[in-house]
Amino acid sequence: MVGEEFAALLEAARDNDEEAFSVLWRDANPALLRYLRVVAPDHAEDVAAETWVQVLRGLRTFTGDESSWRAWLFTTARRRVLDQVRHRNRHPTEPLDDISAGEVPRAPGAEQIAMDNIATEAAIALVSRLPEQQAEVIMLRVVAGLDTDVVAEMLGRSPGAVRVAAHRGLKRLATLLSGAGVTL
Amino acid sequence: MGDGFPRGAWGDGAHGDPGPEVLLPAVTAEDLLNGHLLLVPEEFRPLADTVAALGGPPSAVELREEAQARAAFRALRSGTLDDPGVSSHTLPLELRAANGSSRSRRSARARHRSTGSTRPPSRRGARLGFVSGVAAVVIAAVVGFAYAGGVFSAHVKTVNVAASPSGVRPSDSASGSAGVAGVSASPTPADQPTPTVDVGVGNASADRDQALCRAWLKNPWWPGVKNWDHEDFNTLSAIAGGPQMVLFYCWKKLPRDYGGTGPALHYPPGYGNGHWASMPDIKPPAPGNGPAQGGDSGDGNGNSGPSAGTQGRH
After folding, report:
1. Residue A184 lies in domain
2. What residues of B are in contact with residue A135 (Cβ under 8 Å)?
3. Contact B251 A85 (CB under 8 A)
4. Domain check: are A88 and A1 in the same one?
5. Which of A16, A30, A91, A99 would give a disulfide with B58, using CB separation of 3.0 to 4.6 Å?
6. Consecutive 10-residue averages of pLDDT for chain A (184 residues)
């Protein structure tokens, strides 16, 4: 989170200050990528790029505080993911080779992702083991920094349902950690 | 949609019974979600460290698209990226059917018109022209932004990233927000001989686990890396509880001085001079004995990680 400087940075970015926009981008993009790596692991970078294009298009008309900014950013990203899902459902593709999803070659820098921040990677891998809704709620609450009401609005659920999903997800995480040999 | 996000083979969320459920008080859960990690009871420290790690400092890879983002920003400023001046929405091209539900309510005068269209051709043509223009701009902007070297890039360049103090959680989290300090990465050596797994005497099982982790970290397994021993990785995966648990498992199993000498933690050779997430109970070295490793959780570089608890210490 940027904090007290957010309002000034946003105003500067709307006034075409590239450095100000860069600060906003550097603050939010890691969280955005981590969220997308849980909800759309095969297309995280694509969706992130599309999200920022959409955000740039509406930058001058956006008004709100930093919480609203993050809510807008992650809502946009979520919708991009849904668009991709709908598109793929309408236009299913057949793989050319009989290769399972786990064997598709990745970019050579994948190991760099792992080594740059091993603890974060391990944590994301753990969250990815949760049921989809629990995983998404935890990422929106913890990584995106959104409160329960905002997440509920994004997901079209009640705040109570979001709270329950988050708590269940954390319990399951704790259980996974316990099962991995970590004393609780 | 029904929350049906696409998931890769490693993230379908269905992984069987994780074991006896842990009782997690609601207050503790809310503290975890709100970033009040210092309030979490010690018994849930591993969970708190995991939550903290989710919001850890940004990595070089997560910031590598900055140039492309700046380029898109400049395009917007120059007018190349069209800014319609309206609130953004995901689908700007929601075309309505030409014959909607209004057909049944057409006026008597309208019924005398041709049934082919309810609008004068000129207005419909102008509307389609506007929509086509917006669509072309959107497509060009997305392709241009992505093709500028971001999502279509086939190779990741080695980068040196200056310290970035940004973080995603407030500084009251246990991990702090000091950011990544001097992270650099080197490319994995190509065409290495298949790593051999040496199992020492003494605690054979623990030694084997360490050896497997060391061998794996020399050439972290990703599909397409031909010189990795699949059998070893599958063994490690079975021990760890799944392929996506291997990172976490090796983080716990390897000794503190892995990859370096003295009390400091370093990346394995070949991965530059970054710092691993520290073990939570590492004590700061005496003055003059090397870089500080932080106190309870965090190594002074803003890194923290899942706690190894009281087990698996080597």
Report:
1. 117-184
2. 13
3. no
4. yes
5. A30
6. 90 93 95 95 92 93 93 96 79 58 49 65 92 96 95 95 96 86 44
- Measured CA angle at B261 (ends B263, B252), to 5 deg: 60
Is residue A102 in some structural domain?
no
Query: DSSP class of residue B89?
Result: -
**Residue A159's CB: how many other CB atoms inside 10 A?**
14
Instruction: Answer for the pair B263, B256: CB distance below 8 angstroms, yes or no.
Output: yes
CA quadruple B41, B42, B47, B48: dihedral, nearest 10: 70
Chain B residues inside the 8 Å CB shell of A104: 223
Question: What one-character-per-residue DSSP string does B99-130 give?
Answer: S-GGGGG--HHHHTS-TT-SS-HHHHHHHHHH
pLDDT of B39-67, one tens digit each?
888 889 999 999 999 998 898 889 999 99
Q: Quick one: B24 exposed, middle or buried, by C-beta within 10 A (0-12, 13-18, 19+)?
A: buried
| Best residue in A9, A19, A70, A142 for a mutation probing chain B (most B CBs within 10 Å) | A142
Q: Please tell me whether residues A152 and A77 are part of one structural domain.
A: no
Q: How many CB pairs under 8 A join A and B?
A: 347
DSSP state of B219: S
Residue A122 belongs to some domain of the structure: yes
Residue A122 and residue A87 in one domain? no
DSSP B55: T
Higher-scoring residue by pLDDT: B297, B45: B45
- Whether A63 and A121 map to the same domain: the answer is no
Q: Which residues are B184's β-sheet partners? A: B160
What whole-number distance in Å separates Cα of residue B162 and Cα of residue A169?
35
One domain, residues A3 and A82: yes
Which residues are CB-contacts of A44 (< 8 A; sequence separation ≥ 6)?
A33, A36, A37
Chain A residues near residue B1 by CB distance under 8 angstroms = 82, 85-86
**Per residue in A58-109, pLDDT tens?**
998 999 999 999 999 999 999 999 888 777 777 666 555 555 555 444 444 5
Q: Is A99 left (phi over 0), alpha (psi -120 to 50) or beta?
A: beta
Question: What tens digit of pLDDT does each residue of B201-214 get?
Answer: 446 777 788 887 77
Contact A183, B27 (CB under 8 A): no
Q: Which of the two residues, B219 and B189, has the higher pLDDT score?
A: B219
For residue B160, the cross-strand partners are B184
**Which pLDDT score is estimated for B112?**
52
Question: What would the two tokens of residue B41 be?
Answer: 């009871």
Find the largest Cα–Cα distance for chain B. Answer: 97
Residue B303 distance to chain A (closest CA, Å): 8
Q: Contact, A20 vs B69, CB < 8 A?
A: no
